[in-house]
Amino acid sequence: MYYLGQGSLAHFLAPDLRQVYLPFNYNLLQLFCLVYSPPFQCLNFFNLLAWAITGIAAYRLCRLIDFSPNASLIACGLTLISPPIIAQSTSTTDSLASVGR
After folding, report:
1. What is the helix (H) or strand (E) element at residue 19, kind and residue range?
2. 91-to-3, 40, 84, 85, 86 alpha-carbon distances in Å
3. Quick one: which of 76, 74, 46, 48 has its CA closest to 60?
4. How many CB atoms lie within 10 A of CB 24?
5. Which of 12, 32, 89, 95 is deepest in the core (most CB within 10 A)?
């Protein structure tokens, strides 16, 4: 995702160095959602959305390095079914919700 956003892996100038050296934490989006006290199942929406974006990014990276469309689709599929990706996308982050209650 960093490469797709910047066009290179080199660090860019930013007023806040945390913007460059720390990865984006999408749990902040879950915290924003928890402000409105939704059911806990709604928290999985962000995990599934991140899972889908991961697949799109994997496909796009493969196309950028001149893989064929079929090879890019296979790489995307293998990325999306890898155990760490599946575990992250299907688990609800209950620890965030329990802090505020």
Report:
1. helix 18-21
2. 27, 11, 11, 10, 9
3. 76
4. 12
5. 89
CA distance 50 to 57: 10
For 40-94, the pLDDT digits (tens) are 777 777 778 888 888 999 999 999 999 999 999 999 999 888 877 776 666 655 5
Burial 42-67 (b: 16+ CB within 10 A, else e): ebbebbeebbeebbebbbebbbeeee
In total, the chain counts a number of residues equal to 101
Closest CA to 55 of 88, 20, 80: 80
Asked if residue 36 has pLDDT above 60, the reply is yes
Give the integer Cα–Cα distance in Å for 95 and 30.
11
SS3 content of the chain, % helix, strand, coil (to 5): 65, 0, 35
